[in-house]
Design a protein that fits this description.
Shape: elongated
Order of helices and strands: EEEHHHEEEHHEEHEEEHEHHHEEEHEEEH
Distance between the termini: 50 Å
Helix content: 25-40%
CATH class of the domain at 116-171 and 364-428: Alpha Beta
Strand content: 15-25%
Number of strands: 18
Radius of gyration: 30 Å
Structural class: alpha+beta
């Protein structure tokens, strides 16, 4: 029988999805049954007692007695004499009581608000302005920088939210996986190259089947084909885009005109962009699994306004790389099975590589770091993009994404911003 995942977070690796219940043990001091847990992610065990303020404290039955005597202003020495125990045992409990009280206060702390913001220009002029509401509408990295700097100066986040800030940075790892040898370039491009429909241009991409992803626990991933000239050969379409260089080589004008005529004919007859003589290259874009170690922090260097620049550590998980490898093989098999040509994959694409970090590239789709969620202990903003515990601060950025899917984040971000403008700020006015 499959063990049901629980809501407890692993105290070692902070994973929650990989934690399962694993029986009970009987506590020796009071014979009470204590729930045990096991984390598949870091292969560590822990129990419900791990999260208690009296974790690993002996003579647990004295805790309430000591607490009541302290409330009656009995000194530590006096309590030690009354209970016939060492004074160090009382000091240790006072420390634990204090930590538990601080944790409780941080969780129940009332929300704050921003009263003003400081603006500056390139002439060095600065001014403070009243701030009834503030929406941080910056890029994925810059939004993190602003909130990290605010956290450093004001400490507005507490507990798990403070740890979540800057973590889980994502991009869309990309890989030029290989090229296609085809005997029918026209038919291949008619299927996979840019399509023109009703005056609109569409790019063709291949997405992974949902069943394929679920069966192997794989991530979202897609592939596309770009038509490129072979290295060292003449590319008439590149020459056309750089019109002035074309006139410096008049001998190539005839070939360019002939190629463009073939493209125009394909557009009129079949509604797609045909590029004669070019080789189809095969590229993959993958969802990146969000990892706590993939993070954004403030660096030591500062910009001209005195704000620290960012330090970025981009970490790729083995699961992300394995998704790329298996999808490359899936696409190769399907293209060849349908008779479009032979797909030649790069030799480096293999499962034995840990994370493919040296092969994968980014595409400046910066996401994560100020992640959205309903739990203030595990996220930075709520479902309405409002920063936890601050009444009048919102983040309208791709930095709030908890996951990245496998395609451009712009439309998703626009939908979130539209929702914020239509509903979130309206509710704040009430």
């Amino acid at each position: 029988m499959k063990k049901k995942a629980c809501v407890r977070e692993c105290p070692i690796c902070k994973s929650r999805e990989k934690v399962i219940r694993k029986g009970f043990y009987e506590r020796e001091s009071d014979r009470k049954k204590i729930q045990k847990y096991y984390c598949k992610s870091c292969d560590k065990s822990f129990s419900e007692q791990t999260f208690s303020y009296d974790y690993r404290l002996r003579k647990r039955h004295l805790n309430q007695i000591i607490f009541k005597l302290l409330c009656k202003s009995v000194s530590q020495r006096g309590i030690a004499q009354i209970l016939n125990i060492k004074q160090e045992m009382i000091a240790l409990r006072i420390k634990r009581y204090g930590l538990k009280a601080r944790e409780h206060l941080e969780k129940t702390r009332s929300t704050e608000d921003l009263s003003e913001v400081e603006v500056a220009n390139f002439r060095g002029e600065r001014r403070r302005l009243p701030c009834p509401r503030l929406v941080v509408a910056a890029g994925g990295l810059e939004s993190n920088r602003i909130l990290l700097w605010l956290q450093e100066r004001r400490g507005f986040l507490r507990g798990g939210a403070q740890e979540a800030l800057g973590r889980g940075f994502m991009d869309h790892p990309c890989l030029e996986a290989g090229w296609v040898e085809t005997e029918d370039a026209y038919n291949f491009q008619k299927t996979f190259n840019t399509q023109i429909r009703s005056g609109r241009k569409y790019s063709v991409r291949l997405s992974a089947p949902e069943k394929w992803m679920q069966e192997g626990g794989r991530l979202n991933v897609s592939a596309g084909f770009l038509m490129k000239g072979k290295e060292g050969t003449f590319d008439p379409y590149a020459e056309y885009r750089n019109f002035r260089s074309l006139w410096r080589h008049p001998g190539r004008i005839g070939e360019t005109v002939s190629s463009l005529a073939a493209t125009a004919g394909a557009l009129v007859r079949d509604g797609f962009v045909y590029k004669r003589g070019l080789v189809p290259t095969f590229g993959v874009m993958c969802e990146q699994e969000a990892l706590p170690g993939s993070r954004i922090t403030l660096g030591r260097e500062k910009d001209r306004f005195g704000v620290p620049r960012l330090s970025l550590h981009w970490e790729i998980s083995p699961r992300t790389w394995q998704t790329v490898v298996k999808f490359c093989r899936l696409v190769k098999g399907e293209v060849e099975r349908l008779g479009y040509g032979k797909v030649n994959l790069r030799r480096e694409i293999m499962e034995e590589i840990a994370d493919g970090r040296e092969l994968l590239t980014d595409v400046n789709h910066h996401m994560g770091g100020t992640v959205m969620g309903t739990d203030p202990e595990r996220s930075v903003v709520d479902e309405n993009l409002k920063v936890h515990r601050i009444k009048n601060l919102w983040v309208a950025s791709s930095s709030v994404f908890p996951s990245s899917s496998h395609s451009n984040p712009t439309l998703t971000l626009l939908a979130l911003v539209h929702r914020l403008s239509e509903h979130g700020l309206e509710q704040a006015n009430r």
